[in-house]
Amino acid sequence: MKTLQVLLSTVLLVKLAGCADFDQEVADRCERDPHSCGLPDPTAPVITQSSQSAQEVPSQGTVTLSVEAQDDETPQLDFSWTASIGTVEVHASTGSTSEVVWTAPLCVPSNIPATVTVRVDNRGTSASKTFDLSSEACRILAVSAGDNHSLALRSDGTVWAWGDNSSGQLGNGTKDPQPVVLPVQVSGLTDVVAVAAGASHSLAKSRDGTVWAWGANDDGQLGDGTSLEQIRPVQVAVLTDVTAVVASANYSLALRGDGTVWAWGDNDLGQIGDGTDKDRAVPKRVEKLVGIFISTVVVGDDHSLALSREGDVWAWGYNDFGEIGTAEDVQAIPERMSGVTGVKALASGNGHSLALREDGTVLAWGDNSEGQLGYDPEATVNTPVKVPGLEGITALAAGAEFSLALTGDGTVWAWGINTVGELGIGTDAPRGLPRKVPGLVDIKVLAAGDAHALVLQGDGTVWAWGANDSGQLGDGDAVDTQVPVKTLSP
């Protein structure tokens, strides 16, 4: 019996020794190949090589990025790529290499660095590398000023807005009781080529010739067939092949590629130009102008002007100050202005009008109670008069009771009311004669709202001045300013 016990003990010890050897063998194998034992690899892979075919990438251009990595324990590695902006497409991949193609966006916003990051994973730990890229920066291409809000068109086709949003005119899906002092993106618009700001509504023209509208709609000024306010863009009915849009207090105009003019919204004072005083919730063609190729349309508070390809000016709507150049109180059908020829650009304020002639001089007519016509005395006139002291003018803009002119050398001139700094000259004193706005150079675009102004510099910088009680200057506060300040770029 004792011999049997010794024999069993010996066998047990041998088995235990064998198990220990087996366990050690398994442990060694798991250390060499953790995945065979269902264990994570504790050692990170090593990225041994990386390359990119270019550092600078043009708008919507491409660059090839590649990496090579190794891991002794895990020869089959996983590669994942992410981009901060733009798109990444996998071109080729093996267990130890990966190559992708990055396509740049239309432009890169200033607050988003263009980077592509690759993560190499051995199903336990990982390594990563970030490629820094450079592509065309986003720039502001156009600006528009409404009564108390502003719009900017960015080079990626998006629209940005700031200022009063009590009627949803900023188009970001909300209504705000407080001033919106920084730019917000208008919802859902990505391929826009032109914008227009009205009193409390906004318009955008897409590249495909359609028109989108948002904000106040009590008079049908959005053109969607209703009178319902919209806090996001809705498509304007009927219109196709549109080349330009403008927005007034409570009505809108569009110019089509065939030179016809379409109007909708408030028509109490003949603003639609259809011979009636009936509001229109859907765009209606201005029949009197059919057959006359119109190249430009502008709107005042309640009057409209159209410029023909031949340089003639047509006017209609309210005429309480002679702003349409006749003695009639209301003109519900467009009529050609007598004696006004050789015009290449127009602008309209609340009750005054401006015309830029081919020779670079400026004509003005209508209300001059605040000196907005640019000459003394402060008399209302319904016959265009030449604004003194202006030569070599290339563009015009008109606010409620002030006027702006741009010269060929990129400087800006202003005149008219100046209660809240509308003229940008550092005082609140009105000017009945044009005065140069100090500090501005290389200006390319002008825009004037009710009592504020926006200008676009050649480098894409937006400058603003005047009323800011609704945040319409976009400089981060709601304080009026008498001198130009930089709008915070979207």
UniProtKB/TrEMBL annotation:
By its UniProt entry, which PROSITE patterns does this protein fall under? RCC1_2, RCC1_3
Superkingdom, natural source: Bacteria
Q: Where is this region: Disordered?
A: 471-490
Q: Which UniProt keywords apply?
A: Repeat
What is the annotated signal peptide range for this record?
A: none
Domain RCC1-like span(s) in chain numbering = 192-485
Q: What is any Pfam family matched here?
A: RCC1_2
Entries under InterPro entries matching the protein = RCC1-like_dom, RCC1/BLIP-II, Reg_chr_condens, Ub_ligase/GEF_domain
The name on file for this protein is RCC1 repeat-containing protein
